[in-house]
Specification:
By secondary structure, this protein is an alpha/beta fold. It is about 30% helix and about 25% strand. It binds zinc ion.
Length: about 450
């Protein structure tokens, strides 16, 4: 179908933030000019969108890229037209397209570089998925600074279906940075104040927060159809169920479904609940070494224990960027003697638990040749909640991949994690008793030194 015909019945709302100096409101019929009109300075263009029934969610069932010269189009085929908002972000350079919650009936690897095999062009890769309740997002990784010429839904001629076309053009770094600044200002203005956290009812039971990594638009590692966010969610649920069954703990998960949660939000959830332990669950991949295998337990440290730990932390810290979040300042950089003391004690507990977990894990699963490492993981930065990150294994390793998808293995390994947690609290309690009876003993002195 010719593009002109496709846009003739264009409907939908296109919101393009940070696209240029002017603000022009486009009427729906002006959208017919979009493909040839080139520069789209629009702020908002309203037209009739299809009202979806309650519980009904729009679906996307195809996506492709058209690139030529300094221009590129990313096209999604949709079941119905949608409202979209597009803007740009830097570090790394990305185009973000927000839309109502959409079911992407697409191969999750559709937008991966390896699948696209297009290292030239403006679009290096793209991702799509759920961002939050009722919200979905498309993130386009840029190979060069680009401006959004248009981001709009057009209805196809003959049926109710529609196409979302995101059209990009190459631009210079200065214009790109200026567009990023404008987007930031508008995004800040739109941001709704976070609701105050509900105070947790006092409970004698220690609160344990289990954190399945990634979720929603952020899929984590993906190898041969294995998707990290799903595997770690299944594992986390198994651990939580086993801890619940013990009856001695109050167990919370950072996500109960396939939704995106930012790294700082995960930390905040643990702190708001006064968690006594935070366990983040992940699975790694190494494209270059299929023979590297086994689980690794990480704690946070200012300097990485080794190059491999630094690589893993860098990758896991990309989670927010993968979902198209702007880089946020690290709010945990507070200083002061009290803070330092708290953090030091928390780190000692984290290391003690990591040590315990490695010992329990070896009963059920394989360990990496160096299973205890540390690096600057953002999700482990709560100064007052002992936190570890467990990499279950490598999706790139055949044996690990088989284990991770086996229900039997998951049952055995998750039991070991739950038992390690019980042992950790048993040791903490006996340590607290010892502290009470011996006033000269420094807090935490019973905690054995652990780790390399
Ligand atoms: Zn991960």
């Amino acid at each position: 179908m010719a593009e002109g015909a496709f846009f003739r019945k264009a409907v939908g709302v296109a919101t393009a933030l940070a696209l240029g100096a002017g603000t022009v409101v486009l009427a729906a019929d002006l959208l017919t000019l979009l493909p040839s009109a080139g520069r789209y300075l629009g702020s908002r263009a309203y037209a009739a969108t299809v009202q979806l029934g309650k519980g009904e969610r729009p679906a996307a069932n195809a996506a492709w890229i058209e690139q030529s010269g300094d221009r590129a189009k990313l096209i999604f085929e949709l079941a119905a037209p949608l409202d979209v908002t597009a803007f740009v972000l830097a570090n790394p350079d990305r185009v973000i397209v927000d839309l109502p919650q959409t079911d992407f009936a697409l191969d999750p690897e559709t937008g991966k570089v390896a699948v696209l095999r297009r290292k030239t062009g403006l679009i290096a890769a793209f991702r799509f998925g759920q961002l939050g309740p009722g919200k979905s997002r498309i993130v386009i990784d840029l190979a060069a600074p680009a401006q959004v010429l248009s981001a709009a839904c057009g209805k196809l001629e003959n049926d109710g279906r529609a196409r979302l076309v995101i059209e990009l053009a190459k631009t210079d770094r200065r214009s790109f940075e200026a567009a990023v600044q404008r987007a930031r200002i508008q995004l800040t203005a739109l941001a709704q104040p976070k609701e105050a956290p509900k105070p947790e009812p006092d409970s004698a039971k220690p609160v344990i927060v289990i954190d399945p990594g990634h979720g929603g638009i952020d899929r984590g590692a993906m190898v041969h159809g294995l998707i990290e966010k799903q595997l770690v969610f299944d594992f986390a649920k198994a651990v939580a169920a086993k801890l619940d069954a013990v009856g001695r703990f109050k167990v919370a998960m950072t996500r109960d479904d396939d939704s995106f949660v930012s790294l700082s939000e995960r930390v905040r959830m643990a702190r708001d609940r006064n968690a006594a332990l935070f366990v983040s669950i992940h699975a790694d991949t190494l494209s270059s070494a299929a023979d590297v295998s086994g689980a690794t337990v990480y704690t946070v440290s200012d300097r990485a224990s080794d190059a491999e730990a630094a690589r893993v932390a860098e990758k896991e810290n990309q989670s927010d960027a993968a979902a198209g979040l702007d880089k946020t300042e690290d709010a945990s950089d507070v200083s002061g003697i009290l803070f330092d003391l708290t953090r030091r004690e928390t780190r000692a507990y984290s290391q003690f638990f990591a040590h315990t977990l490695v010992n329990y894990w070896r009963v059920a699963g394989r360990l990496n040749k160096n299973p205890r490492r540390s690096a600057g993981f953002l999700v482990l930065k709560a100064p007052d909640v002992p936190s570890v990150l467990l990499e279950l294994g490598y999706l790139s390793n055949e044996k690990d991949g088989l284990a991770l998808t086996s229900a039997r293995w998951r049952d055995k390994a998750s039991s070991q994690v739950a038992e390690a947690i019980e042992a950790f609290f048993a040791a903490r309690e006996s340590s607290a008793t010892a502290t009470k009876t011996d006033p000269d003993r420094a807090p935490g002195a019973k905690i054995p030194s652990a780790g390399p």
